[in-house]
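HUMAN: Would you supply a protein with fold tokens?

ASSISTANT:
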Amino acid sequence: MTPITEVAGRRVALSNLEKVLYPRTGFTKAELVHYYATSADALLPHLRDRAVSFLRYPDGPEGQVFFTKNVPPGTPEWVTTAEVPRSEAPARMVVVQDLASLVWAANLVTEFHTHQWLVQRPDEADRLVFDLDPGPPAHLVHCCEVALWLRERLATDGIEAYPKTAGSKGLHLLAAVRGSSAERTSEYARALAVEAERAMPRLVVHRMTRSLRPGKVFVDWSQNAARKTTATPYTLRARPTPLVSAPVTWGEVADCRSPSQLEFQARDIAPRLRDLGELMAPLLDPEAAAPLPG
């Protein structure tokens, strides 16, 4: 029988809690659910009012991994959903608004991925994102070098960027923006990626062509497109160990000399939140959002 627990006044079914999802560390489904529940104060504000794509791995990262974009069968009626625009036809997606919905989604064993716009304003981008993806033998340290350049370049346009680990091998930069469409934000991000390649031609590539990427950092600007999603801050990732897409300080980025310095697992997040606070909280302040130049 599937156990039922009460979360914030809602009855949530939790299944197979003893299942080991990450064999290298023995990390279980119960620990995954516990991680999301105890990180909710930091995670939920980044999920709220955003349609969610789930990257699910119910048998662990070494099992079947698949994206779920539409509302999954069996979704409780109290979980918020919203119709969102798609190029082919509108779709109905989950919007994780509260702790009960977060725990229900965690039971599906998932990464959380969100758009760069709110469901109330799908035509207006409120996030700018760069995904810095290293092509071996380039690695996370090289991403940090590119991130520092992008930080300074964005600052000249009055935009403050906040870094987080991808939770895999790269780095993400996020900034709060206002008054722009996804198309305009994508154009701006692409222009900066081209500038970065011109400034650091031996290190940066802005094109997706895989043959160009070995030994360089791909500055992926395309995730600003309205249909694209990016791993949400604090989400677990489907990697061999329970790595988290963790916000980091610019000091940590500048001081990084080894990829392991910016690898954070689920157990690391509570101490970081206690010691550093929620590093991406400024993204949630509408007053901190900057207009794009031009």
About this structure: The chain is about 25% helix and 25% strand. The CA atoms of residues 109 and 294 lie 43 Å apart. The domain at 123-227 is CATH 3.30.70.3300 (Alpha-Beta Plaits). The longest strand covers residues 125-134.
